[in-house]
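Researcher: I'd like a structural prediction for the single chain below. Treat it as a standalone chain; there are no partners to consider.
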Amino acid sequence: MGRERRSEPIGERHVALDVIAGVIRNALAGRGDQRALLWRQLWIELRRFGASNVRNIPLSRIRAIHDVHVEGPIDQPGALVISALATLLECETIFAFGSAGDTSGVLAHNLPDVQIYALAPAIPEPLAAARVHPRPPAGNITRLTGSAETFDLSRYSGTSDLVIIDAGDASGDIREETDAAFSLLSELGTIVWDNYTHSAAAYAYLNALAPALDRPVFHLLGTRLALYSRWDIVRPDE
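Model: Treating it as a single chain, here is the predicted structure.
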């Protein structure tokens, strides 16, 4: 019998060389959309790492997050995380701006006793007609038509335990919606901005806004979400 060949452990250096070779090969031979996706992801990570005032934290820093179980589409991870946050915050009232209203269905499913208000501009007639058999809203969702600039939000002032802003919504103004969000917050309320990492305007705005706030703004790693809370939902760094 021949001598049994002992395999050598693969080290990080070997893997790094293989990765670099693969990147060069795929960058030269790969499709343009693949290269564009690579550079976009790299740019997102560089922006996240270089954020001046928004703090990056893992989801594990959210108090008791591992004890929460939520249900929903696997292709809407942001909605699932927001539903978990709403559960932890014991929300009674939630307000969603713009396309963040799409998250409200997942929230309504997981928190059927919570009152949800979803404010969005009216859908143009041709687009509304193109929608085939839209899913009826859950009974605890109230659809409102308008924007943070035009809609009278005074009756909702100080009542929302969670306000959600779609920071990538081209039809909305993140400044107007953020100002409105703070007027809507309850005493221990929380604001979540979706698309923080993927919207240049949201990234710049929140990094400029954060130093002026009484409490920090956090980016939840592995998500597109940024978070401000009047409740100590984030555990201290150990």
